[in-house]
């Protein structure tokens, strides 16, 4: 319970700052109770940036990325986990090597590729580079090794199922808890991504939510922290909703699997 309270305090503090004024935030000792200025802060926020337009862009990017990541990563992981093919160990070793590289190293190559394709400034430039990632493949591969029994695949082959039907009808229903975790991870990562959308989206009308919120920061002058935290609070709420939906599915499926075992 102590750990839960500690981890929840930043979210509580975000709500406190979003409902008070910047003057209240600057007081010492700090004010730890909710205020009554939330709607005033939200009104200033909506007048400062195109909040809902940038949120729509972020929803499109996050949902598209999550669907593609779940499909492509699980498909590649199924091949690595349950099929023998030439070069499998070498390819998986290369995958682990990519997994250990910092994501920032890919910015320049990705930028050059997107520029060559003519996609800079469009949401495609943000979605496509994130459609498959090394962590997702590694995670699903490790999960599938123990979750999908070879006897099920042998029975499917005897019934005439090819690779894709085995993946779709045997593999995916068995690893739903792992897919739920991957979906949460991919959605949160895409929603919170800031560096690559800042580089790739040169059109102001196509910016994502994190980039739009960064425009509220000022280099000189007085910072309106209450308005910024109101934007942060609104940006966090969809993540809480997605986590609640997928986490419930994750726990339910994991419990059913434990009972069957």
Quick rundown:
The chain is mainly α and 261 residues long. Helices cover 73% and strands 0% of the residues.
Give the end-to-end Cα distance, rounded to a whole number of Å: 30 Å
Q: Name the structural class.
A: mainly alpha
CATH topology: MetI-like fold
Count helical runs.
Answer: 14
Radius of gyration: 22 Å
Number of strands: 0
The major sheet is characterized as: none
CATH class category label:
Mainly Alpha
Mean pLDDT over the residues: 87
Family: Belongs to the binding-protein-dependent transport system permease family.
Transmembrane segments: 55-78, 90-113, 119-139, 167-188, 225-247
Membrane topology: Multi-pass membrane protein
Keywords: Cell membrane, Membrane, Transmembrane, Transmembrane helix, Transport
Folded structure, characterized:
It comes from Streptomyces sporangiiformans. Keywords: Cell membrane, Membrane, Transmembrane, Transmembrane helix, Transport. It is a single chain. This protein has one domain (49-207, 234-260): Orthogonal Bundle (MetI-like fold), CATH 1.10.3720.10. It contains 14 helices and no strands. The two termini are 30 Å apart. It is globular, with a radius of gyration of 22 Å. It is 73% helix and 0% strand. With 261 residues, it is mostly helical.
């Amino acid at each position: 319970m102590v750990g839960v309270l500690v981890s929840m305090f930043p979210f509580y503090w975000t709500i406190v700052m979003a409902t008070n004024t910047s003057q209240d935030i600057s007081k010492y000792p700090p004010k730890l109770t909710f205020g009554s200025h939330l709607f005033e802060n939200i009104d200033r926020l909506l007048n400062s940036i195109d909040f809902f337009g940038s949120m729509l862009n972020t929803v499109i990017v996050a949902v598209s990325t999550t669907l593609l990541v779940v499909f492509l990563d699980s498909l590649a992981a199924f091949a690595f986990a349950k099929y023998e093919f030439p070069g499998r160990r070498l390819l998986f070793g290369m995958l682990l090597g990519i997994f250990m590289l910092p994501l920032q190293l890919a910015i320049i190559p990705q930028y050059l590729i997107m520029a060559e394709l003519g996609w800079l400034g469009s949401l495609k430039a943000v979605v496509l580079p994130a459609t498959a990632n090394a962590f997702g493949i590694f995670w699903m591969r490790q999960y599938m090794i123990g979750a999908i029994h070879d006897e099920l695949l042998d029975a499917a082959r005897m019934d005439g199922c090819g690779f894709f039907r085995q993946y779709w009808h045997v593999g995916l229903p068995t690893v739903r808890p792992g897919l739920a975790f991957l979906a949460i991870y991919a959605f949160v990562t895409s929603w919170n991504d800031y560096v690559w959308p800042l580089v790739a989206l040169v059109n102001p009308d196509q910016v994502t939510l994190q980039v739009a919120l960064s425009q509220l920061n000022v280099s000189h002058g007085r910072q309106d922290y209450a308005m910024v935290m109101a934007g942060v609070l609104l940006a966090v709420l969809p993540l809480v909703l997605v986590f609640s939906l997928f986490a419930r599915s994750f726990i339910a499926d994991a419990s059913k699997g434990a009972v069957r075992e």
